[in-house]
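## retry 2 of 3
previous attempt timed out at serialization; input unchanged, resubmitting
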Amino acid sequence: CQKNPGHSQFIPIKHFSELHIPDIYQQIHRTVNAEKFKVKDDLIPFKEFRNLLYHFVMVMASLTVNVQISFTSLDRPDTVPNDPTTPYSGNELRGQRKTRTASGFIFSSSLVDEGQSKACPECPSSPGRVHAVFFMQTATHNLFDAEELKHSKCLLDYDEESDRSKLKSIEPVEIVMKDIENDVCIVKCVTDDETLCKVLRERLKSYHRLRETIYQILKAKKVVYVRDYVTSFWSIVDLVFVVGHPHGKPKMVSVGHRIKRLGQGSVSSKSSYLYDTCTCPGSSGGPVYIIGAPNEFIQHSHSGALDEGNFCGDGVWEQKVQGG
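## retry succeeded, writing output
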């Protein structure tokens, strides 16, 4: 791998532990804003908070999927929006049946009423009755349009080397939102596996509960600090976690720091960020968790890399998507 030789900064999900989470107080004391807030070491019991973060990242990882796409659309653009000098990702494969791999994140769900539960004729791998739909977020350059969607699948719990044919999956059936410029899309997925539906919905409940708990702790202790909605510096804790499937391999976690916010405008309208957290091809579309974000309902997906660092697409407001 030319980008990250040896992959030393990637942590296999099976080996990820609380010890991989840096001490937030070391960050607070090295931050220029720390004196202004007079943050004390006993403000948040670090061991308890680190335990919360660990369980949250593990639940987030359990909702991260390995996306496999076996066809590249002829309709992909030549270049990225607003930059005629940069080729659009994957355009060299247009029209080819060559498998690409990426990452995605299940962040919401909606139950199907018993009376409306019916077989899905468009779902070859889920021919039975659909009990729930799930919404998966990824990067638009991974799943560009309906043609690519027809040739894609989302594998769950690919946590170690194994026969991937034995892994459970959910069926992508519709792109319900696509933003090419900000490189984010939302995909509706289904499954006829009732047990899997229950498992995923329990994971989602844990994900949202832990995320809300962490946010409220930081907010109450004033570790989340919005100095100015149009600046980059809105928190004195800058940890960034990324979960994904680099090079299509088993799930990995990487831990780094936020560098700055990209773009202009309020945090609610523009929330793309630059960070030094390690990523590789195949990580795109995976969930990015930015500690201390001003709003706990914004979900980010990894997008790509710039000279300064890696970046995510604009955050999606989870409340705008049905279910949860």
